[in-house]
Amino acid sequence: MVEEIKLEKEVETIFEYITKGKNFLLSGGAGSGKTYSLVQVIKKAIEDNPTSKIACMTYTNAAVKEIEERVNHPNLSVTTIHDFLWDNIKLYQSELKAGLIQLINTEDSKIKSPTGGIVNVHYFKDISEGIQYKEWTKIQDGIISHDDVLELSNHLFKTYRLLSDILKDKYKFIFIDEYQDTHPLVIEIFLVHLKQSKKKNIIGFFGDSMQAIYDDGVGDLKKYILDSSIVEVQKKQNRRNPMTVIDLANRLRTDGLKQEPSEDITAPNMEGTAIKQGKIKFIYSKNPDLEKHKVKIGWKSDDTKETKELNLTHNLIAPKAGFGDLMEIYDRDKILDYKKRVTDYIKDNNITKDFSAYTFGQVCKELSITPTPAQQEFIDANSILFIYASNSNFEILKRTYLNKDSLIDDKKQDEKDESRKGSKRDNLIKHLFKIQRNIHFYKTKQYNEFLRRTEYQVRSVKDKINIKKIIEELDEMSQQTIATVIDFADQKGLCRKDDKYSKFINEYPYIFERVKQVKFEQFQNLFYYLEGFTPFSTQHKIKGAEFKNVLVVLDNGGWNNYNFEYLLNPSIYSTLTAAKKKSHPGILSRTQKIFYVCCTRAKDNLIIFYYNPDAQIIKQAVNWFGSENIVNLDLIS
After folding, report:
1. CB–CB of 126/119 below 8 Å?
2. Which of 59, 307, 439, 568 sits CB 3.0–4.6 Å from 549 for a disulfide?
3. What is the pTM of this model?
4. What are residue 538's phi and psi, to 5 degrees?
């Protein structure tokens, strides 16, 4: 017997449009239950069309898993957008090759050959395995990556109407979750190029334009609503936030959608038949040290699953979470900036001399290239490191780059999150992760996981005693250097130095020279942060999550794409010159949206901290939060 689905009113409206053959958009604010509506739509579509295939695309693998767990049906395909597009074009190899060649030869295309210039029709003739989709790009070998898939898919659907016919024949329904984060090229495929086909199917979008916090996303679908490509259905209920946060969120929205508390007494923001009121505070001080203020506001961060402090960047979090030295290495190395200054000079001046036998210092001397003042300041503060770099082989140092993604890529919100495929962490950091995971699994008595990952062979009681001793010794080595810990773990057989580790040391000796001298405690702190065991998170990472207690720090951390002063004092933004606004387009809108996302994570308590605001900023805070919720921390002893 088929379970009868009690539909939400918004879902009923959606199916009224579906019966008329109209594409639709479900717009819902934070906490409205958009995923629940999506699942209802999928289940109803399956019930009404039991033999039809349905495609559902979303932004992350975690979201794919969540939807698959809620709906299990053989005719439902749930994937990321990239995987969906690739699955629908990968068999057409001749068209793929022709499309790539045409894009490489198109001036405004982002797909280029490594040598630049025009390529001919025989460019891919020697590629035996055809065009492949991987985590990296190597165009000359026919390997494309994420961004290339989007551009190539768009080109093929635009060029070959038959692709649209095939896709519409295959899927009666195509649903896109978190549409606002979807690339405009993808939206164009579904709402423009598919129109070339006279066949019928339904395209449905789910999301919230106020939560469009990624620059490469489409943001909103206003133009497609205006040209009647889709019809909009608004979902106004809010099941997550208390009343104080709902009122604040409605003041922050810029699209006219006003949320209302859920009428469902089982909603998380209900207490019996009453709506939770919750607490909101705007706190400020002339002292930027937030840690000293937390006692005054009674902020406790013991429960890292329900309490989060949200900062804009990892750099702001690093010193608080105890891995500031590692972040400094990976994100602020001015010696490598100086090296780039030299390599750019060689390239820009077409210098063809062979420097392969030179040291970096010899090249700098021969070309008479000096550091910038900022680079010189760094060099003066790191004189021993600069001597090491100067004596390094120029060819080896030339290919050395540091990027914070190599350190902090793939952060989890909490320990239950799954690691993402294709992490950009470098092989030195990955090796350190192996060591710390061994320690963590043993200490938390996850012995099966420990035995699966360690290289130490446990065959007897004596081995068990030895491994216990090794772990205890390792755990007490937090004040030792990273190099000492790596050597110890290798010597004891807990985590051997493998080929990837050795290759990294040989290829990037400068990076290893820097990292090996850092205390292992710094990496342990980084591990706990990245694995979700701390109360800290970036503001982008928490989209879609919810917590009882949320503390938002309004500090742009030197990131010019955001400005919280403009947010709370728009009059300053309005006085900027056109050139200044053009240099950072969308800065006010971007800041409004990230602030909206942060505030709407709170299920009970929300606190905003601003360092040293002026009178106008406090005035705006009073408008948003109410005068009774504004706290000057400097007046509290």
Report:
1. no
2. 307
3. 0.90
4. -75, 160
